[in-house]
Amino acid sequence: MNVTGYAYPWDTLDDDAAASMAAELGLDAVALAANYHATRVVTPLHPTRRVLDVPHSAAFFPIRPDAWRDERLKPRAADWMPSNDAFNDAARRFEAVGVPVLAWIVATHEDDFGAANPEVVVRNAFGEPYPYALCPSNDDVRSYCGTLVEEALSTTSANGVVLEACGAVGLDHGSLHDKSDMAALTDAERWLLSLCFCRACHVELSNAGLNPLALAATVRDALSGPIASMESALGENLVQRLASFRTGVSGRLQRELTERVHAVRSDASVTIHASASPWATGSFPALGEPTDVAALTGVVANCWNQATADRELAQMKLRIGQKARLGAYIRADRVHGDPTETIERYRQLGMDELHLYHLGLFNRASLDVARELAAECHRAQDARATYNP
Hints:
Layout: E1 2-7, H1 9-13, H2 18-24, E2 29-33, E3 35-36, E4 39-42, E5 51-54, E6 58-59, H3 65-68, H4 86-96, E7 101-106, H5 113-116, E8 121-123, E9 129-134, H6 139-154, E10 160-164, H7 187-194, H8 199-207, H9 212-222, H10 230-234, H11 236-264, E11 269-273, H12 290-293, E12 298-302, H13 306-320, E13 325-331, H14 339-348, E14 353-357, H15 364-386
Parallel strand pairs: 1-2, 1-14, 2-7, 7-10, 10-11, 11-12, 12-13, 13-14
Antiparallel strand pairs: 3-6, 4-5, 8-9
Helix pairs in contact: 6-11, 14-15
């Protein structure tokens, strides 16, 4: 049972012990950020710092002008880093201790493009833009994402990619100082506010036989009162048609990026963070059609919240069957109870891989839990190899 740990390049470049910690955990791979958005991170075990502010979205591999010449949207360099090749600098440290590296790519969550290019981002039913959320219905957005994955593989030694936010981004995961919690929105209200009505989605909705103006008006009306469910807000027939449309929007991007990865390197692995829910957005958007899953190496379900993790895994297992490996994305600081029991329960639900977030953010307690989780996965793998009837 493979174990993948997640890391930023700066976790390793200014901490000589970081790569050794990954090896000591017995990681089968490190998903190393090839790009990322603005964030603030607290690093309890770092030898020289505790808080790092990352000011803007950036790519951590070399940005080759020729590759981006025809793209409307272009990534920025990480000007706060000592090198414009931080990914490869960090990857070499992991590879030196025997830990392979994957390129962890955040596709449609980007801080900077929305202000200069408001037509490429998600707009809700009230016409309000989400400047951090690139809309995958937009041709320029999909082209940018495709070049991003191609360049992440072409300029690095990564063995494959892990795609986060590979689909629709919505209301959640928006800004560094978010104030949406006080509204106490229900799931259905968040889903309705995550529906996109940008210019490109108007075209796509119309092509799917849906009236975007009428749909937006229906959504606004629904949000004026209590909402028990999507069906009560929109009607069962419209919900079914819209769910199919939403799955198709994310699925097209996932399919196109998988094809572009394999065009660069046919043996590269492709793992996607996703949800079985057609309304899911953000880091784990809706998974595409089952016919697209067969081209994937793995699909990772969000298990950060132990109250919903079992359902996420079970529903995803039903969606993908044996077509791809099923990963469980776990935050060690949120594991309550015996880590051994957690791994065994997730195995029974179909988990094939453990994905650990996040190596550079561990404190001593979460590092101990991560060590137990990884050790139990390796014990399960050894037991499976030994028992071969």
